[in-house]
């Protein structure tokens, strides 16, 4: 299975932590990757400060332990809406960055319940958190574009970084640090790729129950006209009824009218759509190019799905590193950071070649 850049770099750090100083050529052999790929990943990690390079070898940087004002190890509270799949990788990135400096990560899970966000955060503070990484439950129903129900976050007494959330400038939360994936750029990259393959029209099948879904839908509405694509209504995917049969039928009808490409949010729905499309006589990618969004399990589909891969682990790492800079005594004077990391497009079998 092809590794993403995040997965390769996580593996590099794992080997270096276990072995200490390692020559790049030996590192490449240990991981089973081409030396040129490892050198590129090592250079990126060194630029981030995660590795130190010297004379063809790499090692961990000399990093002082992260300690709070009272001299104990810093405790970071992290709120996520769910564990599993997407957020597992975000958590892994944050945990790796915390482990490297001896910080402790404490997790809270809201279960995508907006009314549970505050209770979870209060519990994290009671657990002794010195800083917070927060992914509040913003959905179209609860305020994806105007998260007024979570304005209380701006009043918290601890350094706080929003993770995979971007507050509108009208919100007091816009004055908080934020680290996330640039989902809009991810969608634009996808549509450009399909245009380069000769497609003149692309459908979007997407949920409407999460922040990412909101961003993907908005990006499609903006990017499709820019690339000259024929506009189409979004094919809604209901996360409750899971009525994928209706979506498969509409995609079959669209192919009959000359539309031969679809972007599906997310991987799970794309995986389940594939056999439904085959049962209706459609071949992937010959009749319909399919690209999924998230790239958590897309590579395991048949055929393997080309997918937009948000840099999930890198987001978690960058958020943790920023928070640790805020939390370390005597306190650093930093401007507010709004960091957006660009997703990759992982090319696999399902989008085919030149039409």
UniProtKB/TrEMBL annotation:
Keyword Protease applies: no
Alphabetically ordered keywords of this record: DNA-binding, Transcription, Transcription regulation
Highest taxon in the source lineage: Bacteria
One Pfam family linked to the record: Peripla_BP_3
Glycosyltransferase found in the keyword field: no
SMART domains per UniProt: HTH_DEOR
Record-linked SUPFAM superfamilies: Periplasmic binding protein-like I, Winged helix' DNA-binding domain
Domain HTH deoR-type: 5-60
GO MF: DNA-binding transcription factor activity; transcription cis-regulatory region binding
Xref: Gene3D superfamilies: 3.40.50.2300, Winged helix-like DNA-binding domain superfamily/Winged helix DNA-binding domain
InterPro entries assigned: DeoR_HTH, LacI/GalR-like_sensor, Peripla_BP_I, Tscrpt_reg_HTH_DeoR_CS, WH-like_DNA-bd_sf, WH_DNA-bd_sf
Signal peptide location: none
Name of the molecule in the record: HTH deoR-type domain-containing protein
Organism per entry: Streptacidiphilus pinicola
């Amino acid at each position: 299975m092809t590794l993403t850049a995040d997965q390769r770099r996580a593996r590099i750090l794992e080997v270096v932590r276990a072995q200490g100083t390692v020559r790049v050529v030996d590192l490449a052999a240990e991981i089973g990757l081409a030396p040129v790929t490892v050198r590129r990943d090592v250079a990126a990690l060194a630029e981030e400060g995660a590795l130190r390079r010297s004379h063809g070898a790499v090692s961990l940087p000399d990093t002082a332990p992260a300690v709070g004002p009272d001299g104990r190890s810093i405790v970071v509270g992290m709120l996520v809406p769910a564990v599993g799949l997407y957020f597992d990788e975000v958590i892994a990135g944050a945990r790796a960055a915390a482990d490297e400096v001896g910080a402790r990560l404490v997790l809270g899970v809201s279960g995508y319940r907006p009314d549970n966000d505050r209770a979870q955060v209060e519990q994290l503070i009671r657990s002794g958190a010195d800083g917070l990484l927060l992914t509040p439950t913003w959905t179209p129903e609860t305020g994806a574009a105007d998260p007024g129900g979570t304005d209380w976050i701006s009043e918290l007494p601890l350094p706080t970084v929003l993770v995979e959330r971007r507050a509108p400038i009208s919100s007091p939360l816009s004055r908080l640090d934020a680290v996330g994936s640039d989902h809009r750029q991810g969608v634009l990259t996808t549509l450009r790729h399909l245009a380069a393959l000769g497609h003149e029209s692309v459908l979007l099948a997407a949920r409407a129950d999460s922040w990412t879904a909101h961003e993907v839908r908005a990006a499609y509405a903006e990017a499709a006209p820019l690339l000259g694509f024929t506009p189409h209504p979004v094919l809604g995917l209901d996360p409750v009824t899971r009525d994928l049969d209706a979506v498969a039928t509409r995609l079959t009808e669209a192919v009959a009218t000359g539309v031969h490409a679809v972007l599906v949010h997310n991987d799970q729905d794309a995986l389940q759509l594939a056999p439904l499309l085959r049962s209706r006589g459609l071949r992937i990618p010959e009749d319909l190019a399919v690209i999924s969004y998230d790239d958590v399990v897309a590579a395991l589909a048949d055929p393997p799905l080309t997918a937009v891969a948000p840099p999930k682990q890198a987001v978690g790492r960058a958020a943790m590193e920023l928070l640790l800079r805020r939390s370390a005594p005597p306190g650093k004077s930093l401007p507010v950071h709004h960091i957006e990391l660009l997703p990759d497009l992982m090319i696999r079998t399902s989008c085919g070649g030149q039409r």
